[in-house]
Each structure stands twice: as structure tokens, then as C-alpha cells.
Amino acid sequence: MSNNSSDTITRGLRVVVHPFYLPEKSLPRHHQWVFGYRVTITNEGDRPAQVLGRHWIIIDGEGKREDVKGPGVVGDTPLIEPGGTFSYVSFCPLGTPWGTMEGAYEVVFDDEERADIAIGRFYLNPDSVTVPPAPEPV
Fold this sequence. Notes:
By secondary structure, the chain is an all-beta fold. It has strands at about 5-10, 15-20, 35-45, 50-60, 65-70, 80, 85-95, 100-110, 115-125. Strands 4, 5, 6, 8 and 9 form a five-stranded antiparallel beta sheet that branches. The protein has a four-stranded antiparallel beta sheet with strand order 1-2-3-7, with no helix packed on it.
């Protein structure tokens, strides 16, 4: 895993994030840098868990914070069975050439217990790999 990535386990759910730079979508002369990131959520616990929502904390290179909250992930509320995995790719535009992201997923387990699952801090910078890494093995 690169130094820019994150790997966090909360309540039996492992969240791995690999960021990558998108030079073809970025316009540095206009102060716009675009980064993609691949998220893989693996259920290493013994209860099914459904992702209900997300809360991202995005901080640019000048310290400006943006909170992004919403239902599900990429239009889905995946149910992840024990031993199962869900992956998706998304992106984040920044007004500076580097920044950080972190946050949490709101999940509900099959016994209706709700919990926030940490998304560890990862780093966005143009030195990140420029192609998304292959999905994690299932």
C-alpha cells in the first residue's frame, strides 16, 4: 500500500482507500486538481452490515475544510455479508495541488445496531499513481 492510502478496521469492517491523480481532468492553470479514489470495504466480522450513508471531511492544502454528507455510496446502499467485499471508485476536485480526505460510513448491522465506521485519512497529491489500482481480491 502506498503512503497516500489508508487502511482502517472498525467493528469488523475494513476500509481501504487508494487515491490517484487524474491529470486529464485537472486544470492546474485554473487552480483545479482532480483526484480519484478506490474504496474497498471488506466485512471481516460475523454480521452482515449495510452502508446507509457517508461523511467525508476534505481539507485542501490551504486548510479549507469541506464536509460532504449523503445517503449511501455511489447511489447504492450495499449489504456486505461476512467475508464479502464492496468496491467503488469516486473522485474529488480540489483548488490546491494537494489535500487530505477522511471520514466515516454509517452502517447498520443485521441486529439493527448502527455504527460509524472510520475511513482513515488518505492524501491527495499529483505524485499519487495516475491509474486506479486493481480491485482488491475477493
